[in-house]
Amino acid sequence: xxxxxxxxxxxxxxxxxxxxxxxxxxxxxxxxxxxxxxxxxxxxxxxxxxxxxxxxxxxxxxxxxxxxxxxxxxxxxxxxxxxxxxxxxxxxxxxxxxxxxxxxxxxxxxxxxxxxxxxxxxxxxxxxxxxxxxxxxxxxxxxxxxxxxxxxxxxxxxxxxxxxxxxxxxxxxxxxxxxxxxxxxxxxxxxxxxxxxxxxxxxxxxxxxxxxxxxxxxxxxxxxxxxxxxxxxxxxxxxxxxxxxxxxxxxxxx
Length: 254
Known about the structure:
Layout: H1 5-16, H2 22-25, E1 28-33, E2 53-57, E3 63-66, E4 72-78, E5 81-88, E6 92-94, E7 96-106, E8 113-123, E9 135-138, E10 146-150, E11 153-156, H3 168-172, H4 175-196, H5 199-211, H6 218-223, H7 227-232, H8 238-253
Parallel strand pairs: 1-10
Antiparallel strand pairs: 1-4, 2-3, 2-5, 5-7, 6-11, 7-8, 8-9
């Protein structure tokens, strides 16, 4: 099917003015690299497994990019918007980036031309979207619509919990051990405390021991000890009742 000269001219004018749709014209190409880390990733992206991939999340369906042989993630024809970049790896944890693809007008060529301005910042999950971290990349004037940024590794994923060895500090932090050490120190140090007391304080302490429910017949008192009555300040009235009953019996006998 042949087009007429007028139809071809109209289509050429529409294409030159960018009226074929903003999605076909305004689209950015994004490239992300993983730099090597001396401790976590010494071999760089080449040592990552083949299942490693990156995703760009927005309101619509996410964009996905696999790990290429050169160790990069390439997203093609990304429409303007604000995206969250996440790198999913089997063995490592990577930082998240906020990627903004915005429409811009380029006046350097003499004619106003719509281009894409792309910027990337470090971001953090759980924080506000406006909370931006360190800038990771930005498009230059010569390469409008194309950006290359770095995605840094943060740590390794641990799937197994290592068995902790013996630690004297953790042994001493045990509550039962602390109670035993305190009781032993109290038993050993009490005689020295009593020897260093003055006579008046020592007499008061002995008087308190005599008035204590455990001071008289400790074996039976310990079995029948009432903690609530002791804390309330109540005294045992059984001895008085026994003396009264004994006295009344003697009178009857007489």
